Amino acid sequence: MHDLIDRRRALLGPNVSTFYDDPVHIVRGEGVWMWDAEGNKYLDCYNNVPHVGHCNPRVVDAICEQARTLNVHTRYLHEGIVNYVERLTATFDDPLDTAILTCTGSEANDIALRMAEAMTGKRGIVATDATYHGNTTLVSHLSKSNVPEVGFGLGGYLRHVEAPDSYRIPDPDGQRFAAKVQEAIDDLEASGIGFAALIVCPLFLNEGFPTQAEGWLKPAAEAARRAGGLLICDEVQSGFGRCGSHFWAHQRQGVTPDIVCMGKPMGNGHPVAGLVTTTEIMARFRGSFRYFNTFGGNPVSCAAAMAVLEELEAQDLQANALKIGKLAAERLHALAEKYEVIGDVRQSGMVFGAEFVLDRANKEPASAYADRIINAMRHRGVILSKLGRHKNTLKIRPPMPFGEDHLDLLIDTLDGVLADHPVAA
Fold first, then answer.
1. Sign of the dihedral defined by the CA atoms of residues 96, 100, 105, 111, in that order
2. Tens-binned pLDDT, residue by residue, of the chain (425 aa)
3. CATH topology assigned to domain 2-52+316-420
4. Sign of the dihedral through C-alpha 91, 96, 100, 104
5. Of 101, 195, 319, 365, which has the fewest beta carbons less than 10 angstroms from its beta carbon?
6. Which among 353, 424, 419, 374 is positioned nearest to 22, based on CA atoms?
7. Vertex 269: Cα angle to 265 and 275 (nearest 5)
8. Whole-structure pTM over 0.85, yes or no?
9. Fold of the domain spanning 57-314
10. Pairing mode, if any, of strands 352-359 and 342-347?
11. Which helix H or strand E contains 107, and what residues bound it?
């Protein structure tokens, strides 16, 4: 283990992140399970990249069959990309009917920002102050915590607004958030930069997925549209049935974005991503920018992505996300009655978690405690993480085949860890 870490540091450079105080050397995955080099088995409660399960047979077979046949770029005609985009866009509401395929969600979000410039002639972007949208030079600036010291001066084009927080900042109808967005829009317009787009994850996953009523995002979307800007929904984490009630989280919010970006789970680990938009926006983008991606939309990627859609439908995994999510919320609320350190429970389909606090009265974040719990869970064979502005909320986002027996194991293990790790210890 230490030799592998040393080799990583020497070959990949310093500060290459790993999970946990004692990193895990994973060598195999299947369904919702992973195994390390020593043969230890782990329940995966974190990874949404293997959306339909690690090494899903349908996806693996599709990749292998297509790789044995043909893999080229899209300057040659192949049916795979058009067949996939037809099926993908059928999951959206009008007028979202055309797509660009890329390799990563970062690329998709980067293109979306360029589309916003093409449509508006302006460059000002509004995002939350606790988000993450990728790592291209442009997109990295959207994450306030990741803005580099040297960044080509792009920070001046961005305005960060207060991220929603249903536990600490009451905003039941989204009007407070909309007002913050309007302030940012007004500032961009007054600066001469102008407002081009609002970009958000419709579940605000990196912000800690605060509890929201259906339609909560509508007022902010309306503010963006009134100002002549676009609404970009980054569904890299929230899409493909994960929210349970709908296939796309923006549908739950009752809004139709101008652009929807997607990635990670799209190919179940194969690097495929993309965005869906309107015919008008696509035509304006294609006329304003020369864009080509050698690997985006290649036949193997399209075969993997199509297999994911087929598996989601065949196994009715959206319904599973709805069922398991509700059960998870019930089980977490029961733990909250038992352990004062759980200040809040939140859940959106197959994304659920608990926020740790040192004191329920003043809601002081227990960030260091969250680290202790995550590391303890890892040593008991359960993989999860944390997120939110205070990094004190458990992020439980398992592959979609996650079932009731898996949930039982997760909750029972968490119960034991919380009992063995009191806050004051």
1. negative
2. 678 888 888 888 887 778 888 889 999 999 999 999 999 999 999 999 999 999 999 999 999 999 999 999 999 999 999 999 999 999 999 999 999 999 999 999 999 999 999 999 999 999 999 998 998 888 888 887 665 555 667 788 999 999 999 999 999 999 999 999 999 999 999 999 999 999 999 999 999 999 999 999 999 999 999 999 999 999 999 999 999 999 999 999 999 999 999 999 999 999 999 999 999 999 999 999 988 899 999 999 999 999 999 999 999 999 999 999 999 999 999 999 999 999 999 999 999 999 999 999 999 999 999 999 999 999 999 999 999 889 999 999 999 999 999 999 999 999 999 999 999 76
3. Aspartate Aminotransferase, domain 1 (3.90.1150)
4. negative
5. 319
6. 374
7. 45
8. yes
9. Aspartate Aminotransferase; domain 2 (3.40.640)
10. antiparallel
11. helix 105-120
List the one residue out of 73, 31, 80 whose CA is nearest residue 307.
80
How far apart are alpha carbons 351 and 400 in whole angstroms?
10
Q: What's the CA gap between 396 and 265, in Å, rounded?
A: 15
Q: Contacts for 94-99 with beta carbons within 8 Å, 24 or more apart? A: 94/256, 95/256, 95/278, 95/279, 95/280, 96/256, 96/257, 96/260, 96/276, 96/277, 96/278, 97/276, 97/278, 97/279, 98/276, 98/277, 98/278, 98/279, 98/282, 99/274, 99/275, 99/276, 99/277
- The letter for the amino acid at 242 is R
The tokens for 127 are 């995002």
Amino acid at site 54: H
Q: Where are the domains of the chain?
A: 2-52+316-420, 57-314
Tokens found for residue 366:
């227990």
Amino acid at 374: I
